[in-house]
């Protein structure tokens, strides 16, 4: 497998009026060409921070304070804004939760797709671009003749399809999707995910899919990483994560918080407690004050990442025994 993106020891902070917030605390992550990586974790775990770091679109108060983000051999952390402008939309695209913030209300959807093409495919003629706009509209399941309509003329699900069309217009190598279906109702969610899955296979686009919904991850991801307090605490193939075996106690907690419709329980068992204050992170394992297995050393020593095949877990429970443990 060929590496497309490799994040090494990424650190990101936000400086607010009162606090320095530690949003990413040593993230290591690889995405191979054409694969779909799911990133799961609660709100505030650092998922969006990681994606915005890749795009170099962190809010003004945010800064990358350490590490590297290699994309096809180029370190994006060191890349200039001019380099990033060329990459965005062309090689790396991002779609967000709310399609309305991504669409311009006063331009037709066709013109919005065309804008991306104009920017990145300057060699194409007007007729070629128009043909491409039609093609992309059809690709996301919208009749090409609707390209003359404005965003408000489309439903929520349709708007997100248009956002996806804009993101995929230049056939990027990497698509970052941050909760792309969260704002949509359940049946529409499923259709959009199905479409994204088909499209990424067709275009061989790699995708990082950020979600708090493990069901979505199970549906379309090849590999999965679980984030907590700005770190990846477990990662592996979809099989490693979803087919039994042993997990990081936080991952186990996440699984238990999915309602199991087959067992007729209507009660979620969310993990008790809250994620630590990112301005004041605890020593040792950052999950220790919520962990049912917390041991003494968990409060002082940061757990090392233990690897078995493709499966990695950062937890003291597994460190002692090595390898046969999960
Ligand atoms: Fe729990 Fe300790 Fe493992 Fe952290 S390192 S998840 S506190 S057992
Ligand atoms: Mg987020």
Automatic annotation (TrEMBL):
Pfam families: ABC_tran (PF00005), oligo_HPY (PF08352). It is found in: Cell membrane. It is a peripheral membrane protein. GO terms for molecular function: ATP binding. Residues 5-254 form the ABC transporter domain. Keywords: ATP-binding, Cell inner membrane, Cell membrane, Membrane, Nucleotide-binding, Translocase, Transport. This is ABC transporter ATP-binding protein. It comes from Dysosmobacter acutus.
């Amino acid at each position: 497998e060929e590496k497309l993106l490799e994040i090494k020891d990424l650190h990101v902070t936000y400086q607010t009026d009162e606090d320095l917030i530690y949003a990413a605390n040593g993230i290591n992550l690889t995405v191979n060409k054409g694969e779909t990586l799911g990133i799961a974790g609660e709100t505030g775990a650092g998922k969006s921070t990681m994606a915005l770091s890749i795009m170099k679109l962190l809010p003004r108060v945010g800064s990358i304070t350490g590490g590297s983000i290699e994309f096809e051999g180029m370190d994006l952390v060191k890349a200039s804004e001019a380099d990033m402008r060329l990459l965005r939309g062309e090689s790396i695209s991002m779609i967000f939760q709310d399609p309305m913030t991504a669409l311009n209300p006063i331009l037709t959807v066709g013109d919005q797709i065309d804008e991306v093409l104009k920017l990145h495919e300057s060699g194409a003629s007007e007729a070629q671009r128009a043909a491409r706009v039609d093609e992309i509209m059809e690709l996301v399941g919208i009749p090409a003749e609707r390209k003359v309509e404005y965003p408000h003329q489309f439903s929520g699900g349709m708007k997100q399809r248009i956002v996806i069309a804009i993101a995929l217009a230049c056939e990027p190598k990497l698509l970052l999707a941050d909760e792309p279906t969260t704002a949509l109702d359940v049946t529409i969610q499923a259709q959009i995910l199905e479409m994204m899955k088909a499209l990424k296979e067709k275009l061989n686009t790699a995708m990082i899919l950020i979600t708090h919904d493990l069901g979505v991850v199970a549906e379309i991801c090849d590999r999965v990483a679980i984030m907590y307090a700005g770190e990846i605490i477990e990662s592996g193939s979809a099989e490693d994560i979803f087919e039994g075996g042993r997990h990081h106690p936080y991952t186990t907690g996440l699984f238990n918080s999915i309602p199991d419709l087959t067992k007729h329980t209507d009660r979620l068992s969310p993990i008790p407690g809250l994620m630590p204050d990112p301005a004041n992170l605890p020593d040792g394992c950052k999950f220790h004050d919520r962990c049912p297995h917390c041991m003494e050393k968990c409060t002082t020593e940061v757990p090392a990442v233990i690897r078995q095949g493709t499966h990695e877990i950062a937890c003291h429970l597994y460190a002692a025994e090595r390898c046969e443990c999960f």
